[in-house]
Design brief:
With 190 residues, the chain is of the alpha+beta class. The chain is built from two helices and ten strands.
């Protein structure tokens, strides 16, 4: 109604007044307010998706599962460096949120941002466990991550040769070799 129209008129008058004052503030003493007001968003024409390769890896000593991502950006410029970030399932709006997953995003202009849906487990951020590397010669971005292992007891057998602590598996149980993090299952003995 009338209030809305009055507010629009006030806003138009204020914008016109600010537009006249803006050239005077563009000097060196303009301050922080002018820097944010004059910030222009870059628009880049996207040329498609980059090539990628994902490899499942496992550390034999720590028994940690991990992933190795290799993303190739052949058309990226010299000054551009690819970026990555983790996104919660609740941040994205493409699929219904599922707390069992998170997303790993890779971005570099002029390519589209790509995302990989991974398990929502804690990532091991210790040195040597989580790393990324951008090779400007081959234009390949590599990222390696390992998921933290569940809490376990002291590794290896005791003096008698039997496993100790959380690593001990009672007799009559079997472990799934494809997913050792699942609880051991009892075997039927008759």
């Amino acid at each position: 109604g009338k209030k809305h129209q009055a507010s629009l008129a006030r806003r138009a008058a204020r914008d016109a007044r600010d537009a006249e004052a803006a050239p005077a503030r563009t000097g060196a003493g303009a301050g922080a307010g002018a820097a944010t007001a004059s910030r222009v968003r870059r628009t880049v024409v996207k040329i498609g998706r980059p090539g990628y390769k994902v490899t499942k890896i496992r550390d034999p000593q720590a028994r940690q599962l991990g992933l190795l991502f290799e993303v190739t950006y052949p058309e990226v410029t010299e000054e551009t460096k690819p970026r990555h970030r983790f996104m919660s399932a609740f941040e994205q709006h493409v699929e219904p949120p599922n707390s069992q997953y998170q997303y790993l995003l890779f971005a570099a202009d002029p390519y589209e941002t790509i995302a990989f849906k991974v398990q929502s487990r804690e990532v091991d951020m210790r040195p040597g466990r989580f790393w990324s590397h951008w090779d400007p010669d081959t234009r390949k971005f590599t990222l390696q991550l390992f998921f933290r292992s569940p809490a376990r007891g002291p590794p290896g057998p005791d003096a008698s040769g039997t496993p100790t602590g959380a690593n001990a598996v009672p007799t009559g149980t079997r472990i799934n070799p494809l997913d050792p993090y699942l609880a051991p299952q009892q075997t039927a003995r008759g």
